[in-house]
Write a structure and sequence with these properties.
2 copies of one chain form a homodimer. The first copy, chain A, has 399 residues and is an alpha/beta fold. Helix content of chain A is 35%, strand content 22%. Chain A is globular. The interface between A and B is medium-sized, with 33 and 32 residues.
Chain lengths: 399, 399
């Protein structure tokens, strides 16, 4: 399925007009002088910007309600309300992980996303059915998008006996990453939960990605437990903390202390730029060299009604939340949604250098900064040399 | 220019399929049984939602950079940096208030805005040139949108001798409302500035709309000075406080005390739902019966690069900032951007009742809540019975 292609009249990262030559799905040339060998199909770029594929580094493909009609939000305000309501509605509404993940994937492709890290619920009610559904979608769309799966104990790990064994089975079946969440607030046994999560990671040689919504000092305490285990097991560079609301705390001395350790242990941070919660200060993290990525989180699911999987709009939301106004700041927000995701997910051959996978997006804008604030429909999306979306519409179909 | 029109197959506020009959620019009938008399043109509604016109209750038409090419943000982080940088760039870049306001107005019409309250800078350098430019735009587009103008001392009032006389001249020339800003932080003489602002309002019998960015206790102090003058002059119901960041303070006892007085004095509050600043809690204000409106604030100007004048997207941003998830909450966000603006601006004949001005918008969505989170391009925009936009594109042209 991978292809040869020449894209003419594009401005890589806003630079000088160039052409991009793709051979066998890899970048073979990019510059003003690049030309196509005979027989290579040509796509006119129309003067658009060329950026690398957008990276959706945190979402929940298994539970979107896309295409199921409007369903009013039912859950109460607490985290546990959302978890319990979701388990109930999954039964009542028949939220099919295979169908729903395919629908969201197709929407993501239309917006220029070329890589996804998805958390998939595993619990004692669902077992591995969510994982199996998302794995089927990953397989069905493997030529047009890369999907990495986190085995995610959404309903708690120790609190629900049997979940640990299911996570282990999930890793054997095909999940890539060990997930976790709120070791104090949900499992009420932070050391026990984190020992179990890191134990699995060690045993299977897999990275870790932990949802940490706990704010303030409670979140800081959980982070310290994560730091201790990362260090003790030599897992530097293999741990991600998602949300990390405690890094948005007003106590900047506490936050600075946490950031020192995050940088030293090369822990990645995922932030959606939530407008209603404290959030990690992106510029401060990046200035310390911390890998920062972003994601849509849930899209139209039982947790909330928002989202349409556009990671360029996400860059705008990150910019609004972080009070970014200058071009270099808006470019940083874009970088979080491209290279940042690639760095966190350790994607091989990601970028615009010769030899990188030809996963690229064309955006009609004057500058990268304008692309972020205006986030117009993507002119063209290419995955490993294959055109997968035009003018905001994905070519692959959803069920 | 006002017209007769029948719009069929619409769902008013998400209700049962209906038709809307417009005669001489007013709503003559709305319901399932409504039919057109002979000779009235018919617009098929395609099953879209019908909502009243969107209300842009706080923007700055005189200074957008729309259509002037991408201009990187230059100003420093403080409010005074933005004010000083803007005065300089207005000269250097030739930001023409007439042309720029027309461009933004046309963009607003395309998104379904039927009423605008704009603040227009008046200072000792510009004199009344900004006001004259926006008044020319108001006149040029008077058949397709209603524009109310606030005479706004952006660079300070007492701090720049001569400004007060210019504001007075502006009100004589055609401004509708007396503006002000940050009486402590900018003018450094809160009692003096507010006495001048309220003095003008009294003398001309005009309402007041004050930008108040001052946070925490400083903002609360300025608010109290505003309350005192509102009460002393009997100006209940005629004062608006824009931004009102101090109402987003963590000290909820202080905030509740302020809200008591705001409700008692019937002061209107404008919030953009800024993601990076403390903001007034919309649901709490509405529960007390306080009139709340919203606006885009500056759109692609020297203050910041964001914004495209879509008040339905603004409702989504309000929802994200206020953590709205339920349908009734999303409908509240929409109401702030429609009826809320009308209540704050005291718009006569606004709404969907028989006799109201036929200022309506068609949105293709299943529910009002979906209209907010998805904010698709508007199917149709009608101003006093005249079609002014189709499929997201305004019919009037911009310079």
């Amino acid at each position: 399925m991978t292809q040869d292609l020449l894209i003419t009249d594009i401005r890589p990262m806003g630079g000088a007009p160039s052409a991009l030559l793709i051979r066998r799905g890899r970048i073979a040339g990019l510059g003003p002088e690049v030309e196509a060998p005979p027989g290579v199909p040509v796509e006119p770029g129309g003067g658009a910007l060329l950026i690398p594929g957008l990276v959706e580094a945190h979402t929940h493909l298994d539970k979107s309600l896309l295409g199921m009609g409007w369903r009013p939000h039912q859950a109460g305000p607490r985290l546990i309300d959302k978890i319990d309501t979701e388990r109930r509605l999954k039964r009542e509404w028949g939220i099919d992980p295979r169908r729903q993940s395919a629908r969201q994937v197709v929407q993501s492709i239309g917006h220029g996303t070329t890589h996804i890290r998805t958390h998939v619920d595993i619990d004692t009610e669902l077992g591995l059915s969510g994982l199996e559904g998302v794995m089927a979608t990953r397989d069905a769309y493997r030529d047009v998008i890369d999907i990495e799966i986190v085995a995610f104990p959404q309903s708690g790990l120790l609190a629900r006996p049997g979940t640990l064994a299911l996570l282990e089975a999930g890793l054997r079946l095909g999940a890539d990453v060990v997930g976790g969440l709120d070791p104090c607030a949900i499992d009420r046994d932070p050391a026990g939960q984190l020992d179990a999560v890191f134990g699995l990671a060690q045993r299977f040689g897999r990275p870790v990605d932990i949802h940490l919504h706990e704010p303030g000092l409670l979140g800081a305490f959980s982070m310290e437990l994560i730091f201790e285990r990362t260090l003790a097991l030599g897992m530097q560079g293999q741990v991600v903390i998602s949300h990390a609301f405690c890094l948005g705390d007003a106590d900047t001395a506490m936050v600075d202390g946490l950031l020192d350790q995050i940088a030293a242990l090369d822990i990645g941070i995922m932030t959606t730029g939530s407008a209603s919660r404290p959030v990690p200060p992106v510029a401060k993290l990046r200035a310390r060299g911390i890998r920062v990525c972003s994601g849509s989180d849930g899209i139209r699911d039982t947790w909330g009604p928002y989202g349409d999987a556009d990671m360029l709009e996400r860059a705008m939301l990150l910019g609004l939340r972080n009070n970014f106004r200058r071009d270099d700041e808006l470019e940083m927000a874009l970088s979080v949604c491209t290279e940042g995701g690639a760095a966190v997910m350790r994607l091989p051959h990601y970028g615009l250098r010769v030899g990188d996978c030809a996963d690229v997006v064309l955006v009609q804008a004057e500058t990268l900064a304008e692309a972020v604030v205006a986030h117009p429909p993507r002119r063209l999306v290419v995955k490993r040399g294959q055109v997968v979306a035009r003018d905001g519409v994905a070519l692959p179909r959803a069920p």
